[in-house]
Fold each of these.
Amino acid sequence: MTEVSEPARPRWLTESEQDAWYAWRRMFPLVNAEIARDLQQDSGLSEADYDVLSVLGSTDGHRMRVTALAALMSWSRSRLSHQLTRMEQRGLVRREEVAADRRGAEVVLTADGVAAITGAAPHHVESVRRHLVDVLTPDQLRALAEIGDTLRHTLGATRKQPAAATGPTAAR
C-alpha cells in the first residue's frame, strides 16, 4: 500500500513581504494604464503597436524574422501574427519572405511605421518620465532595474537581446 503524503504547509508571507506584494499588484497596473492611455491619446498607437514598432525601429534595416521577434517580445507566434496583421492593414509593417532560405518571414517597418514610431517616441518617453522615472529617486530607479533584471533572469526571460537602443525608439 502506498503512503499518501500530506501537502506541504504554505509559507505564508510576512507583513513586509505582503506589503511588497500588494505594492507590486497595485503599482504595476496603475503605472501601465497611465502610460498606455497617454500613448493612445498622443499617437493613436496601442502598447502592442508601440512594442513592435520600437523593437523594429532599433534593428539594422528595421527588419527582423517573425520567430525572432516573437521570442524577443515573449509573445506567442499566434499573438504576434494577429498583431502584425492589424499593423499591416494600417500600413505600419509588412511581411516579406526571407530570400536566402525561403523558410521564414521577416517583418519590416514601412515608411509609415517609421513615421509613427518617430512621432510617438517623444510623447511616450515623456509619459514614462512623468508616471515613473521622475516620481522615483535615482536609488529607487536602480533598485527597480535590479529587481526587474532578477525577476526576468529567474523567470527564464534572458533571451538574447539586441544591442541597447538609443534615440527615439529607446523608451520601449
Note: Helices lie at 15-43, 47-57, 66-73, 77-89, 111-131, 138-154.
Amino acid sequence: MAHPATRHSTDQIYSVLRTDVISGALKPREAMSEARMALRFGVSRTPVREAFKRLVDEGFLVAVPQVGTFVAPIDLAAVHNSQFVRETLECRTVTLAAERIRDADRRRLEALIEEQAAAVRRQDRPEIFRLDEVFHAEISRIAGYSAVWNMIEGVKAQMDRVRCLSLETPSWSDVILQEHRVIAAHIMKHDAAGAEAAMRAHLRTVFATIDAIARDHADAFDDSRLTRDAP
C-alpha cells in the first residue's frame, strides 16, 4: 500500500495534470516526462508514475512501449458519447427547472449571466469555462437533481477539451453567452418546451464547430475509434 504522503502527492499531481490536459495547457501528442514532472511538483518519480497510470487508464495519456508517454489526442467517439449523455439528461433537467424555478433562483441565474458577460468582455477564458459549468450545474440544482450534474461531469472530459479549444476563437464565447441568455429566459418564464429546445440547440452547437476546430487543430484529434453510426 502506498504511503499516505505519496498517495496525497499522486492525487494532487493527477488533478493538476488532468486539468492541464482538458484546458489545453498540455497539448495533444505532447511528450510527458516522469523526470520533468517530478521536478515540477518537487516529488520523487513514484507519485508521478502513479498519476500517469491513472491518466492513461482514463484516456488522457497514451503510453507507447519502448517510446514514452504522450498526451492523448481528443477521442471523437468519446465526444459523441458524452454529447448523448448530456443531451439526454440536461434536456430533462431544464424542463424541470422551468417548472420549479422560484424568485431566488431567477436572481441567481440573472447574476450568473451577468458574471459570464463580464468574463466575455475581458476574454477571460478560464473564467468563461468555469461560469459555463456553474450555469449548467445551477439548472440541475433548480430542477432538484444536483447530483445529475456530477454524473455528467464524469463523462464529458473529452468534450471539455473541444470546448476549451473552441474558446480560442473570441466570437465563440459570445455565441455561448447568447445561448445561455435564451435558455435562462425560457426557464424564468416557466416555458419548459422552449427551455428544452434551447438547451438541445445549445448542446449541439459544439458539433457545428468540430469540423472547423479539427481543421485548425488537426493533430489534436483521433477519430480512429469513431463509429459510423455515431449521432
Note: Strands lie at 31-32, 61-64, 68-71, 74-75, 221-222.
